[in-house]
Design goal:
With 408 residues, this protein is an alpha+beta fold. Helices cover 37% and strands 20% of the residues. The protein folds into 2 domains: 3-223, Thiolase/Chalcone synthase (Peroxisomal Thiolase, Chain A, domain 1, 3-Layer(aba) Sandwich); 237-361 and 379-401, Peroxisomal Thiolase, Chain A, domain 1, CATH 3.40.47. Mean pLDDT is 90; it is low at 1-11, 364-377 and 404-408. Residues 246-399 form the Chalcone/stilbene synthase C-terminal domain.
């Protein structure tokens, strides 16, 4: 949705990304860690051997965990209960999310008290009240900040949160009110590693989750552009359009089932095929429904964009690359995030956007135009972000990099 949709005039989108923060925990795990853990607790059955083979071939160099290698979680004989996992999430996840939010707020340049809306998301915790409350309290947000907590949306949650926040800010725009939204994603799937292993052992079915998921918290600040103060940064991207689509025939392919010991992921090997069948149509629909973009024939070429494509697995990226005719350069930051971090669920796409932002800001600065807030940038002028949530649901967003101000 754009300003044109809301107000009936104007060219510029109403909502912009003005701050990003990503925080990975300090404990770094290579594939050998998962293998040693599995063999410490279980016999090398055919199912485990296949699981370990998948782990070795994942192309993930490192994943991150809030739990260091000496933590009792990895070594205790009994598989932790979901209650114990909840305690771990609150102990480590809330501070991790606060750190990511502080980075995003600092990047934005505004004050926590100026945040009007919060959209938080996780699929690795189900506590009531949710984790967003303590995070907002630690950040010093106002008590009347409008908060929404999303759950059950899986890996698509980061983009779903942007879509929800955009709708909130457009509502404020319609009323002529300044609005700033903080998006918070916090995912700690490694606290369910023991649960995943136990499920594999009981069912004697290989489990790709052992070597795929890692922990991460990420945050974004969005602005509706009204009442911008001098200290707020120049927007990183405008949000041009958001689309969400349920993929027919995908029921049961991607799930995160809850049990007495936590969550167990189900990632069907048919998912890359479904992605391949859906992504071209989703991309075309996104372009067609974006005012100011749909009329240009060149915008229907996937290769002109940078792609923040959620790496649910390496095969996800290959499916998109093949069907859309993308180069590895188009997906460079998605491959990078996958190799260094793995699948961090809803926070992954925000991490990729952060990597694209950092690449852009590594360009030569033009101090005369915008001081230390402007960089010439690298990469494409537009970014397509894609993630697939449980169900399966495809979330897609088109971002546009702001053009440099004209010189006198």
């Amino acid at each position: 949705m754009t300003v044109t949709d809301v107000l009936g005039s104007g060219q510029k989108p109403a909502v912009s990304v003005v701050g990003i923060g990503v925080e990975y925990p300090p404990s770094k795990q290579g594939p050998e860690f998962a293998e040693a853990l599995a063999l410490r607790h279980y016999d090398p059955t055919p199912a485990l051997q296949k699981t370990l083979e998948i782990n070795r071939k994942s192309r993930i160099e490192y994943r991150y965990s809030v739990l260091d290698p000496d933590h009792e979680y990895w070594h205790q004989h009994q598989v932790p209960t979901i209650r114990e996992c909840d305690v771990i999430f609150k102990q480590y996840g809330i501070p991790l999310a606060v750190d990511a939010c502080n980075k995003a707020i600092e990047d934005w340049g505004g004050l926590p008290a100026e945040i009007t809306h919060v959209v938080a998301v996780t699929c690795t915790n189900t506590s009531n009240p949710g984790f967003d409350g303590p995070v907002c309290q630690r950040l010093g947000l106002r008590n009347n900040t409008r908060r929404v907590l999303l759950h059950g949306v899986g890996c698509g949650g980061g983009l779903a949160a942007i879509r929800v926040a955009q709708e909130m800010l457009l509502g404020a725009t319609q009323q002529g009110k300044p609005a700033r939204a903080l998006i918070i994603s916090c995912e700690l799937p490694t606290i369910f590693t023991r649960t995943e292993l136990d499920s594999m052992s009981k069912e004697q079915r290989p489990n790709v989750a052992l070597g795929l998921f890692g922990d991460c918290a990420a945050a974004l600040v969005l602005s509706n552009g009204i009442g911008v103060k001098r200290e707020e940064r120049v927007p990183i991207w405008d949000v041009l359009n958001c689309e969400t689509t349920h993929l027919e025939g995908s029921e049961g392919l991607g799930e995160y089932k809850i049990g007495p010991n936590g969550y167990v992921a189900k990632i069907d090997k048919k998912i890359p095929l479904v992605i391949g069948q859906s992504i071209q149509g989703g991309f075309t629909n996104l372009v067609t429904s974006t005012p100011g973009v749909a009329s240009e024939t060149s915008n229907y070429n996937p290769g002109i964009y940078d792609w923040a494509f959620h790496p649910g697995g390496y095969a996800f990226l290959l499916a998109a690359q093949t069907v859309l005719g993308l180069s590895s350069y188009n997906l460079r930051k998605a491959f990078e995030a996958y190799s260094d971090g793995g699948n961090t669920v809803s926070s992954t796409v925000i991490s990729i956007l952060n990597r694209l932002k950092k690449e852009r800001e590594s360009g030569v600065k033009d101090e005369e135009q915008q001081g230390d807030r402007f960089t010439s940038g690298k990469g494409a002028d537009k970014v397509i972000a894609v993630a697939f949530g449980h169900g399966l649901t495809m979330e897609m967003i088109m971002f546009s990099k702001l053009a440099p101000p004209a010189t006198a």
